[in-house]
Amino acid sequence: MEKRYFTIGMAGHIDHGKTSLTKALTNVDTDRLKEEKERQISIELGFAPLYEDKELQISVIDVPGHERFIRQMIAGVAGIDLVVLVVAGDEGVMPQTREHLDILGFLGIKNGIIAITKIDRVDEEFTDLVKDDILGELEGTVFEKSPFILVDSISGKGIEDLKHLIITSLKEQATRNSKGAFRLPIDQVFTVKGQGTVVRGTVYEGMVEEGQILKIMPKGTEVRARQIQVHHQSSTKAYAGQRAAINISGVSKEDLERGDVLVSSEHFIVTNMIDVAIQVVEDLDHMVKQRMPIKLHIGTTEVMGRIVFFDRNELKEDNQEILCQLRLEEEIVTKRGDRFIIRRPSPQETIGGGWVIDPSGNKYRYGGKTIEELEKKKVGSPTERITAALYEAKSVSLNELIKRTSLDEETVSENLKQEGFIFYNGKEYTLQLLIDGIEEEMIGRLEIYHDDYPMKQGLNKAELFQVMTNRYPKDLLDFTVEKSIENGKLTRKGQFVSLAEFQPHVSKSWQKRVDNLLVELNKDGLKTQYFIDYIKKAGIPDLLVPDLKRFLEEQEFIVPLDDQYYYHGEVFKKAVDLLRNGTDSEFEVGEAKEILELSRKYMIPFLERLDSKGLTKRMENKRVWT
User: Fold this and answer.
1) Helical H runs in 453-544?
2) One Pfam family from the UniProt entry (predicted)?
3) Prediction pTM value
4) Once rounded to an integer, what is the mean pLDDT over residues 359-386?
């Protein structure tokens, strides 16, 4: 069974015991900042490992409860799989309890547990009143049937029961998609001495591996995942649902901020105009007017924009889903289906939330016709549904595609004739944009490999595929390599793949020393010395020797007699010509010794090299030219 990864969140009003409850569950104090200790409130997101076995790994995010830190709260819960809604037993439901409840609902979080804390401070009768109060608030929400649990973080009452409830609830829950393109909305950026820039966040989807080439969006900056940590432990990979810290090269801390997104593909859309479906809170205090300023929270991003309606000019209360558009002041990274929150910047209040229908919105006319078009988009056209299914699965058969899209065979087959859909290996379909993304990743990996190992022919195909096989079927990777060879971007020699324009070479920093080595080797002719002596004399470090030997042999600059003696390539060629011209179709060792004036020490390895190269064939005591 594949291991499953989840992140849960602690939400609720300030001072209702979220941080204490997190510490009681995990033995980790998530208030790290000096200001948090002094003021005894959470300001930034706190993280802790909760549980791990062979099947599950669970992390906790403790989000700030104060209304001033609502952005941090949204950034934290946007990536969670289950919420523990914390309500203090001595206070009951408070304003931030209600707002957090609204936010959780709009973000599509359906799995919840209600934890009534500080129960040692109140009697059973008062606890029942608090429970009734909460039930009233939950009525009509996705959490109305959520289980209740009574806990006290100081005495430890109910803590193990809560932990058990969290684990059993998650065992029944589906995990996030680890097969898709990797995406991590960044919620923290910092530096580690001697390591450089580190970003942290919850992996929304896909997986990442050490050494992988990634991009910081929306800026488009290319970076490399140097190291990965999960719960302060080094890991070669991080999967959807995990909290991860990634040490990246190619960018400084000052160039990054919370809200940037780390992705493995350029095909996530960068946009500042999104078509959306929204719902508003029930107790909206102020009218929402056409084109009024709003603050959008999506993933860990917070950006200003305006709301544009096409069927009204103002909105106060409406229980229905409203189709509209958000026009933003800055670009964001998003895709269809992403959930978000919108808030009024002043006076501050949560207006509502919803999901992205189309991340590539355009300007439309006001009126019913636009609403009709948005309704069609909301359902999704057959092409969009097929594209989404292929993007998630990477490669599927026609029958599987029919199942995944719930479309009939004729509709699917007709849509697959469009540009951008690729039929390959005689049985499966994929997307051109996926092939383009794979090719781009391969080229990026090869560029780095050629820089690191300029003397090698290229990267072994199995190694090239290694960090991609968890994300793409091997058949699709093979197909992409063949297409890239056809279009002149890659080349292959045996099992080695390289960029088409690449030629193995000695780096400039060592070229002069290698030239000196070859000059000395050539000067000694057939009376060559130990090859290691030439290496030392040229001042070439031991670390470089294996790659250098392989390169010089492949390029035929040197020819090995055995593992100690080598001839210069030209010297060997001239010796072969001299021997061939001085003998008949067959010859004996003695004849060869006279012609080349070599002792047995060199003669026997030389003749064996002729045999191994297929220039001669040994027949008893003679050699026959082939």
Assistant:
1) 461-466, 474-486, 508-523, 531-538
2) WHD_3rd_SelB
3) 0.69
4) 89
